[in-house]
Amino acid sequence: MEEKKKVRYQASPYIQGNLARQVRADEIYESFPELRQEQEAPKPRKRQQNMPETTAAPAVGFVNMVLLALTAVFLLFSCVQYLDVQSSIAETEREIRGLEKKIATLELENGYTENRIYHSVDLTRIRETAMTELGMVYPYNNQVIEYNAARKGYVRQYGVLTGDEEEGIHETILRMFMRYHVASGK
Q1: DSSP tag of 115
Q2: Rounded Cα distance, 174 and 169, in Å
Q3: For the chain, how many structural domains are there in total?
Q4: How far apart are CA 88 and CA 94, in angstroms?
Q5: CB-based contacts of 39: which residues, under 8 Å, 6+ apart?
Q6: How many angstroms separate the CA atoms of 6 and 80, rounded?
Q7: Backbone phi, then psi, for 166, in 5-degree steps?
Q8: Which of 41, 138, 151, 175 lies at a C-alpha separation of 20 to 30 Å from 21?
Q9: How would DSSP label each residue in 43-59?
Q10: 86 with 139, same domain?
């Protein structure tokens, strides 16, 4: 059995039997001299790229400084004007909203007033006043002539009516019809 203990595996300096040895760093370098050369060899330095030398920025001339100042003043003035326009737009929109509310209120009041007037009209009283005070009577069945107008809409009056205008055909027929009925006593 002693012979087995003395047997050393040459496969690796780290393994002895079935156990892994704890090896110090200097023992590794002794076992593998090529590692020492790699460790001690200096790493090649990266080449520095050719960078242009930095120079001081050129001084800003008086003319350039004046132009820069004028530009800043112009920008400030433009911003103030922009804010003023925005403010006036917002104020106008508020006024429009107020006027729209006022219009809605007036339309509602107008509807109430129109409804009140419509319901306050007494048609019976109007009929009685027309018949008693103005002498109006209901027409007989033959006195009402209905016709269909060719055009829908309204009638335009192009001049003042004096009363001596020429009679239309329907008025002539109506007059003749009335004479016939009065003469026949119907």
Answers
A1: H
A2: 9
A3: 2
A4: 10
A5: 29
A6: 97
A7: -70, 140
A8: 41
A9: PPPPPPP-PPPP-PPPP
A10: yes
Report residue 47 CA to chain centroid gap. Answer: 60
- Residue 174 within any structural domain of the chain: no
Residue 75: pLDDT band (50, 70, 90) is very high
What one-letter code names the amino acid at 144? Answer: V
Token pair in block for residue 62: 């008086």
Q: Which helix (H) or strand (E) holds 19?
A: strand 19-20
| 139 and 68 both lie in a single domain | yes
Q: Residue 18 is part of which domain span?
A: 2-40
Does one domain contain both 80 and 142? yes
How many angstroms separate the CA atoms of 24 and 29, rounded? Answer: 9
The 10s digit of each residue's pLDDT in 95-105 is: 999 999 999 99
Query: Do 123 and 86 share a domain, yes or no?
Result: yes
pLDDT in tens, 11-31: 555 555 556 666 666 666 676
For residue 167, give the 3-state DSSP assignment. Answer: coil
Is 20 in contact with 14 (CB distance < 8 Å)? yes
The Cα 63–Cα 71 span in angstroms is: 12
Q: What angle do CA 95, 97, 102 make, to 5 degrees?
A: 95
Q: Within the chain, what is the greatest distance between any pair of CA atoms?
A: 169
For residue 76, give both structure tokens: 């400030």
Which residues are bridge partners to 16 per DSSP? 19
